[in-house]
Design a protein that fits this description.
globular; T-fold; 11 strands
């Protein structure tokens, strides 16, 4: 499985994800990899076995749906709802329609949340699941997510503070200057916070597509952000410029 349009959270190669820094989280790191899925999970205990089971299950649902509906994998446009689809696929379809992009633009976020929700059901009540830059966070205390923005001088110097009452939520990033995937924009980083990680993922792709290359600058993209429903807020970084909208608290790192 590969994600839809928008250069999707690939700031470094598979083996070089040095942006994965837990800071003073007080949680234990677990890494789970299966085909394209590459999770960094922070939890009070090692959750590798349960996480592997959950990843295999959710990937099987998405891959099975694609076998019977090949357009789902390749469409760059929203697709109709499908009440017969597995839950994770329905979430991706909804996210794509809300953001105006293909459903696969939400795949990394949807998988991160599916795994996180599964771990919660097994009794893990304080965790972060990161899937290549898309994060499902369900911490019991305030935390800060640092923004990686490639070669921008603001990269790693700005964070988004999340209060406990905002969680669980999704924090997802898309970039038009980092990584090798298709992008229709030139933002160094677009970060979206939303109650749904799938929606945050799809929205980050859509917003990123609006930055530059004849589509306007940060102001244009931020105006478009206001039209998106079901997101809490967004942050856009391009070179030395930063713009934000909504319920996001920026902090200097």
């Amino acid at each position: 499985m590969k994600q839809g349009p928008g250069r999707k959270k690939r700031p470094l190669s598979y083996r070089e994800r040095t942006y994965r820094q837990a800071g003073q989280s007080g949680l234990l790191s677990t890494f789970v990899r299966m085909v394209e899925t590459d999770l960094h999970i922070l939890a009070p205990l090692d959750v590798e076995d349960e996480a592997l089971r959950l990843v295999a299950g959710v990937r099987s649902q998405v891959e099975g749906y694609i076998r019977h509906n090949p357009v789902f994998r390749h469409s760059l446009r929203p697709l109709p709802r499908d009440a017969t689809a597995p839950a994770v696929v329905r979430e991706m379809l909804v996210a794509g329609r809300l953001a105006g992009v293909g459903p696969m633009a939400a795949v990394a976020g949807a998988i991160a949340e599916a795994v996180g929700r599964g771990l919660q059901k097994s009794g893990v009540d304080d965790l972060i699941v990161e899937n290549g830059g898309d994060i499902f966070t369900a911490r019991t205390r305030e935390c800060t997510v640092a923004v990686f923005a490639g070669e921008s001088p603001l990269s790693g110097r700005v964070g988004i503070r999340l209060a406990p009452e905002m969680m669980p939520c999704g924090v997802c990033c898309s970039s038009g200057t980092v990584g090798h995937s298709l992008s229709l924009g030139v933002a160094d980083a677009v970060v979206v916070v939303a109650p749904s990680t799938a929606v945050a993922d799809a929205a980050a792709t859509r917003i990123g597509n609006e930055v530059g290359r004849g589509r306007g600058g940060l102001g244009h993209a931020l105006e478009m952000v206001k039209e998106l429903s079901d997101i809490s807020g967004a942050v856009i970084i391009r070179d030395q410029q930063i713009g934000a909208w909504g319920a996001v608290e920026l902090v200097r790192l």
